[in-house]
Design goal:
Elements: H1 2-14, H2 22-28, H3 37-43, H4 51-59, H5 61-75
Helix pairs in contact: 1-2, 4-5
Length: about 80
């Protein structure tokens, strides 16, 4: 994030765009997993299928395993 901010300042000084910016750094951060605890407690709702099966149905087996790997890594950060 600091490097993105520094690039924003440098881009302003140079009056040109650079390939890295604060916005681009933020867009690289994976989306956080959704918290469904409120829906579960207030509405009594729970998902019909798990995230792994949902990814498999949506993207196919190979892409689902890759996506699950990315989600697990995002959860650990």
């Amino acid at each position: 994030m600091l490097l993105g901010r520094m690039c924003d300042v440098l881009a302003g000084v140079l009056k040109r765009s650079l390939p890295l910016s604060k916005y681009r750094v933020l867009s690289l951060k994976p989306l956080s997993p959704a918290d469904i605890s409120t829906a579960r407690s207030v509405l009594g709702w729970s998902p019909a299928i798990g995230s792994g099966r949902g990814l498999e149905l949506t993207f196919g087996r190979f892409r689902a395993s890759r996506a699950e790997h990315l989600i697990r890594n995002a959860d650990s950060t």
